[in-house]
Amino acid sequence: MRAPIAFVGSEVTRRVSQLGALARFFLDALGSFGTLPRAGRRVARHVLVNQIWFTALQAVPLVIVLSGLLSFLVISQAVRELGRFGATEIIGTLMVVAIVRELGPLLTALAVAGRSGTAIAAELATNKVMGEVDALEGMGIDPLHYLVLPRLGAAVVSVFCLIVLFDGVAIAAGLIAATANGMSTDRYFDVVLRSLAFGDAGVSIGKGLAFGAIIGTLPAFHGLRVGRAPTDVPIAAGRAVVGSIVAIFLCSALFVAVFS
């Protein structure tokens, strides 16, 4: 009887300890911005720009395809089914609640986590295995300045911008779907804009910032915690992606509980 209880207790203790280490890592990364030396800002800015290029700009086609197909399919079915009952005004609520507030930020964050989160974890884990992180520390350079902070900032900026892009493409694709199924353009924009409130944009922005922080922190955390074995690199990448996905869903549920 004691063995299962002891196992559960040790597992809970380990998870709580890991969450505490993750929280300290995130706060240290944010705090490193204030200690970034003037001479190193140019290097950090260069890394930031490269990360935004990879995380945001190169992911634009993927986000456009996901947003366009999702919105076109959902609105096409909604116009057909709701049109039978004369309830097309619900389409605005469906677009705002289901796509702009929920699926847009969620799918964007999952796409970035699967694409860029894996790359961040694998890159930093490789740096750790190859001894490059120890070399930075040996030269008196804080790895947080050049390895973590630019990637964290790039993830927040990229996810936020991609969510805005997702929502814009979703509204445009919804218009195409609605007009293709017999709904007028004026009617479509009337029901969508009537359902869209300032709070919806605020929730979407808040999710973008939170999801970006998750994607910028968790992969870097797992990537820098590896040992010396090369086999630790794919393990860190897998843990980073799984942890990011779980954290994104939990964060999304928290937003629903707080703002609904």
What would you note in describing this structure?
With 260 residues, the protein is mainly alpha-helical. It has one domain (2-259). The protein has helices at 2-35, 41-55, 60-83, 90-129, 132-138, 143-180, 185-195, 198-223, 232-259. Helix 1 (2-35) crosses helix 6 and helix 4 runs antiparallel to helix 9. It is elongated, with a radius of gyration of 22 Å. The two termini are 42 Å apart.
Question: What is the C-alpha radius of gyration, as a whole number of Å?
Answer: 22 Å
Helix content, binned percent: over 70%
**What is the strand tally?**
0
Mean pLDDT, to the nearest integer, reads: 84
Bin the strand percentage: under 5%
Q: Tell me the structural class.
A: mainly alpha
Low-confidence stretches: none
> Can you tell me the overall shape?
elongated
| Largest sheet data | none
Report the end-to-end length measured between terminal Cα atoms.
Answer: 42 Å
Order of helices and strands: HHHHHHHHH
List the total number of helices. Answer: 9
Q: How many domains, as an integer?
A: 1
Which key phrases capture this entry?
single chain, 260 residues, mainly alpha, 86% helix
Write the layout of secondary structure elements.
Blueprint: H1 2-35, H2 41-55, H3 60-83, H4 90-129, H5 132-138, H6 143-180, H7 185-195, H8 198-223, H9 232-259
In a few lines, what is going on in this structure?
The protein has nine helices and no strands. By secondary structure, the chain is mostly helical.
